[in-house]
Structures are given as C-alpha cells and as structure tokens.
Design a protein that fits this description.
By secondary structure, the chain is mainly alpha-helical. Helix content is 88%, strand content 0%. Helix 1 (2-26) runs antiparallel to helix 2 (30-55) and helix 2 (30-55) packs antiparallel against helix 3. The longest helix is centred in the middle third of the chain and has 26 residues, at 30-55.
C-alpha cells in the first residue's frame, strides 16, 4: 500500500510540475511568472520530501529546506523589485 501511495503522489507532483512549467513558459506577465516559479519550487520541495521519506535519508530534507529558504527570499526580492523597482 505504501508504494502505491508513493507512486501516485510522485505522478501527481510530476503533473503539477509540468502545469507550473507550462504556466511560466506561456505567460507574458512578470508577476505571473514570479508566482509560477514559486509554485514550481513548492512542488520540487514536496518531491524532495517524498523522496526523503521513501529512502529514509535526511540529506534530501536538508536540500528541501535550503530550496524553501532560497525560494522565499527570491520571491520576496522579485515582488519588491516589481512593485518599487528596487530590491533593498
């Protein structure tokens, strides 16, 4: 049962990643691209966490945490640059 849930979740996350990637490619608005990249990073974080649970390795959790921190900072910086034309 555990394997079925894992494979179903990985297929679902792969589909979501493709949808987010298509959104980033097809849009012309920069703010929608920022949101699309943020959604892609959240899906990648969930894939890393699923893989970490399955392999029982904590290294992937560290990578997911690092990706979450970088994604948060980059999204805030991009949104601030979009609204005020300056980062800091």
């Amino acid at each position: 049962m555990h394997d079925v849930v894992y494979y179903a979740a990985m297929i679902w996350m792969t589909g979501l990643l493709c949808v987010c990637f298509g959104l980033v490619i097809r849009t012309h608005s920069s703010i929608v691209r920022i949101v699309g990249f943020d959604a892609m990073s959240l899906v990648l974080i969930s894939v890393l966490i699923l893989y970490s649970i399955t392999t029982e390795s904590s290294y992937y959790l560290d990578a997911a945490l690092l990706l979450a921190l970088v994604s948060f900072v980059s999204t805030i910086a991009a949104a601030r640059y979009h609204s005020e034309r300056r980062v800091f």
